[in-house]
Amino acid sequence: MHLITHNLLARNAKGCTTNSFPLAFRDAHGQVEIQEQDINPDFVCNVLPRLEWKALIDAACQVGDESLPAEQPNMTDDELVQKLHYVLMEIHITEGAMVCSNCEHICPISNSIPNSKPDPKDSMEYFSTLPVAHLADMTDGNGHVMYGANSVAKKRARVD
């Protein structure tokens, strides 16, 4: 799981309505792979204003990276774009867990996939993502969506 995905996840469960974002990593520090990817500076610059900066910094620190500044910068330079790309797209959590800071529900990460399966005691629990509006303008310049959640929303809209 990439940190860009983590920055979009919140726990949305019955009775767990406050402080469910961000989810904290547990036992993930030693289960991190670096997966090199081609950098897309336009994508990084488009995603920057949509990030929950403090959550990103906390998550990066939890998995052992302290390369980003504590305060969200107003401007981007090549060095910041490189660092953001690395943190968002190349750090990959393969095993561990995420914990809700409100209800302390544990969501395991196995084979890079977070398990959002609800507790059997409450069948109404589920994960949600932040509004798709956060992803609306993340295109590659040719109008192609760069991140899957928006693509899924568009496919659903066509089906309905």
From TrEMBL:
One of its GO terms (biological process) is rRNA (guanine-N7)-methylation. GO terms for molecular function: protein heterodimerization activity. It comes from the Eukaryota. Belongs to the TRM112 family. This is Trm112p-domain-containing protein.
